[in-house]
Design brief:
By secondary structure, the protein is α/β, with parallel strands linked by helices. It has one domain: TIM Barrel. One of its GO terms (molecular function) is isomerase activity.
Length: 375
């Protein structure tokens, strides 16, 4: 078996796909496996003609959240010749073709250039210089959001530093990788909205948009009605989902969202029924695309995370590189009214693996599939 076929077979086994399905679901997989990361990114496929065959994700909008390659950022550059630390990983991502990144914190290995913690004014300036050197733009960060409300002086000071660092880096958005609250109860979402509206105002004053990232639980049904439990909390639902309620009570000029499209499809699989106020069981299947289209301008960011359907698991999907799964991204991005508005960030939680080069290999494969997505 040739080295190329061995690489293809290893990827197929890792993803749990048949060889035919792997070849059908990915674009240029053999070429992607054969091209080393040091090579320039290949040119895009045929350009748009008369509005047809247009790229659904424009070149300038193809991004990656750095959590996907966290192993590369966090490894000791003295122990490997592979890209290590922010600067070298930026270089690798730019060679692949990415033009946007989203931070997931500002820490790297202590031996990497700049040291372990770059969440300082000086560190942000260093990061910005590396971004600029590689033609990359940072669009957001999964960072600090105060847990308590009202804000303590310490929390307020730290959040102001978050905004200062964001502006040095040139971010348009600042946010978190967590839901506004993990609670199922209306009263807690009311408090969350009050806090996020206030933080959103601070972000707006700094010229930034504040955003929250969803997991599937945020699209479960809100407990807001019915008999009360022993602690005086409602036990049934009117049928509104938790984040849908938050859409309505948060300020549309101050609070924005990053839909993780994978977790939204997990919610479609998991959160289908609720107990109505009269005790009856009701079914309501979640539609991620309709949720975005109803308030498209509030979703400046997406996580473009793919999955293969696996109904035998709790989530109903297994994470795979972008373009290798069953989520219909051609339909999702093709139905959006403004392709220039949104910033899709490729994410794959399980990209790091036993192969130390795997996360960057998946990043290259996923970039090629993002570029090949047409409509």
């Amino acid at each position: 078996m040739s080295q190329l076929h061995e690489q293809e077979e290893a990827l197929r086994r890792t993803l749990g796909l048949s060889r035919r399905r792997l070849l059908a679901a990915t674009t240029g997989i053999a070429a992607a496996a054969a091209v080393p990361l040091a090579q320039p990114a290949a040119a895009d496929p045929v350009q748009a003609q008369g509005g047809r065959n247009r790229p659904l994700i424009p070149p300038g909008k193809r991004g990656i959240i750095l959590y996907t390659v966290r192993d590369a950022i966090g490894r000791d550059p003295a122990s490997t010749t592979l890209p290590s630390g922010f600067r070298r990983v930026f270089e690798a991502l730019a060679r692949i073709g990415y033009q946007q990144v989203e931070f997931a914190g500002y820490r790297q290995h202590a031996n990497a250039e700049g040291g372990a913690n770059l969440e300082t004014v000086e560190g942000a300036r260093l990061l910005r210089s590396w971004l600029d050197d590689n033609g990359l733009r940072a669009e957001g960060n999964h960072g600090f959001i105060p847990a308590s409300w009202p804000l303590s002086t310490a929390d307020l000071d730290r959040f102001k530093q978050v905004l200062e660092i964001a502006n040095i880096l040139g971010l348009d958005h600042v946010g978190t990788g967590s839901d506004p609250t993990g609670s199922a109860y209306k009263a807690d979402w009311d408090v969350a909205a009050e806090k996020w509206n206030a933080l959103g105002e601070l972000a707006c004053q700094a010229g930034l948009k504040l955003y929250t990232h969803n997991h599937d639980a945020a699209y479960a049904f809100l407990l807001d009605s019915g008999p009360l439990d022993e602690q005086g909390r409602p036990t049934r639902s009117s049928g509104i989902r938790k984040l849908e309620y938050f859409f309505e009570i948060s300020d549309p000029r101050r609070v924005y969202f990053e839909m993780d499209i994978f977790w939204a499809h997990v919610a479609q699989f998991k959160h289908r029924t609720y107990t109505a106020p009269d005790g009856s069981a009701q079914t309501d299947v979640f539609d991620p695309l309709a949720t975005v289209l109803a308030r498209e301008k509030r979703f400046p960011l997406f996580h473009a995370k793919d999955g293969t359907a696996n109904p035998g698991t709790a989530n109903g999907y297994d994470m795979v590189p972008f373009g290798a799964g069953d989520i219909d991204y051609a339909r999702f991005f093709g139905r959006l009214r403004s392709r220039g508005l949104h910033n899709p960030m490729y994410e794959q939680d399980n990209a790091p693996g036993a192969d130390p080069g795997q996360s960057l290999q998946y990043a290259e494969l996923s970039y090629r599939n993002m570029a090949a997505l047409r409509g």
